[in-house]
Write a structure and sequence with these properties.
nine-stranded antiparallel sheet, about 25% helix, about 180 residues, two-stranded antiparallel sheet, about 30% strand
Length: about 180
């Protein structure tokens, strides 16, 4: 999960460094300060512009909690933060399993906007238009969905893909022994 936030004000990163011993800030290498949280286990990049990027959250709720937790910690340390942060989910990467075997060769032919070059990469790359996501689909039925802006988009994309695979007879469910 990657979320961005905007505090709509400039932030003195040196003041944060002075207040928190465990932050990482090397302005000659990277303009952002790294603020790690143990709970929820996330990392936030804080920029002098007042923009933040949160990575590592496992849900939208957790990303929002992490941003708000850092803002609280900054305020508690005496760093003036005027309003509430505007938080926006930028990207969700999710993995899943369709519990069936996929004929990737046929799937490449039957589905639009796919790329499958098994010599290069073992998965089929499927660019879904609605919702706008990219799904890496493997012969084992496992998948990775990226580009979603909400958890609901992930669920919708996986449901839609599963229905298409069923409809086109591209998924096979081995008999359980």
């Amino acid at each position: 999960m990657v979320a961005s936030a905007n505090l709509h004000q400039r932030i003195n990163l040196d003041a944060i460094v002075a207040s928190f011993k465990d932050v990482e800030y090397r302005p000659d290498e990277f303009p952002g300060l790294v603020f790690r949280l143990k709970r929820p286990k996330t990392a936030l990049l804080i920029f002098a512009s007042g923009k933040l990027v949160c990575t590592g959250a496992k849900s939208e709720k957790t990303a929002i909690r992490a941003v708000n937790a850092v803002v609280r910690k900054l305020r508690k340390a005496g760093i003036v933060i005027r309003g509430k942060p505007d938080i926006k989910i930028q990207n969700i990467v999710a993995s899943g399993d369709l519990h069936g075997e996929i004929d990737l060769e046929r799937a490449q032919v039957e589905l639009e906007d796919t790329m499958y070059e098994p010599e290069q990469f073992p998965g089929l790359i499927y660019r879904m238009k609605d919702p706008k996501v990219v799904i890496l689909l493997f012969a084992s039925g496992k998948l990775v969905c990226t580009g979603a802006k909400s958890e609901e988009q992930v669920h919708e994309a996986v449901r839609k893909l599963h229905a298409i695979l069923e409809e086109k007879d591209l998924i096979y469910y081995p008999e359980e022994e």
